[in-house]
């Protein structure tokens, strides 16, 4: 079966992970894949996660199946985390998934089944797996302008002008916070404008929430999705616990669908259950249980929030320190946007050739579109990275 097959190329993020691992240089700097690192360069297991895991180990007496959509307690905790009290619980259907990517896949597959003729609109640029999954499913897609490379900010006029072309039933994919790869986020006013556009056109927003807590804070990062949920009849959401709980390899994610109370909610719940059954049957439980326990226990929840806020501040500090070092190295405010961006990522405006020089000559790894993961910076690396970026992007 495989003799004549050409396997798919890994995407640029996965490819870079392999190149970094194979680089023997001791002073190489990984600013590629979106993984948080402490000032010591570690991706630690959070203390609240350790405590929850210990308690689960002590009390858990079975590894029997739970339910096709996962534990209802986990889904309720995720609903509260993401949506707060923006909509009544009776309007929300939910399903556990293997990670945030699993949630993205299940949402897009739902669209494929129920609205095969819809176009999915994605930001230009976006996370490479968004178009890859849409193409794999055979759904039509179009891009909307998002990023203004000249200012490092949002091209809101271009975005709204492009989105004026949506048809009823089309799906608009938005990043809930910490836009990947640009680092530029929508303001509350922008979210309200998107809600108004969806009300006028009948388009359905799909919010990918992969970094809640990494941007402006847990509640502030959810402001946009809550604006949409409160204003619209239907919102599709993919949430990830990989980053904010540091549970990358445990694969913890959830689909949340905001819809009408009663029949529509029950139907959405049934669709999600059926799709989980066909794709992987039951979602992974261990990491989801850790999240559920942390979010339903006051002491563990407080411990987690404090750790998460600490991580957010480390990234904010890295941004400020790099922006300052670049100001000094370039004698200009050209990279000042780094301090204004939120979350792990920023596009630094490097061409593919400049990204290659940074990697080959300086051992500094960025994704090929010039995306930098600021969480990969350490105090020791910042001056060197600033010098190299100033030199290569001069
Ligand atoms: C990233 O964008 O680097 C992360 O979301 C990891 C991934 O799966 O691509």
Automatic annotation (TrEMBL):
The keyword NADP does not apply. One of its GO terms (molecular function) is pyridoxal phosphate binding. The keyword Metal-binding does not apply. Its cofactor is pyridoxal 5'-phosphate. Keywords: Aminotransferase, Pyridoxal phosphate, Transferase. CDD domains: AAT_like. InterPro entries: Aminotransferase_I/II_large, Asp_trans, NHTrfase_class1_PyrdxlP-BS, PyrdxlP-dep_Trfase, PyrdxlP-dep_Trfase_major, PyrdxlP-dep_Trfase_small. Residues 27-388 form the Aminotransferase class I/classII large domain. It comes from the Bacteria. Its EC number is 2.6.1.-. It holds the Pfam family Aminotran_1_2. GO terms for biological process: L-phenylalanine biosynthetic process from chorismate via phenylpyruvate. GO terms for cellular component: cytosol. It is an enzyme of class 2 (transferase). PANTHER family: ASPARTATE AMINOTRANSFERASE, ASPARTATE AMINOTRANSFERASE, MITOCHONDRIAL. Belongs to the class-I pyridoxal-phosphate-dependent aminotransferase family. Homodimer. This is Aminotransferase. It comes from Roseicyclus persicicus. The lineage of its organism: Bacteria, Pseudomonadati, Pseudomonadota, Alphaproteobacteria, Rhodobacterales.
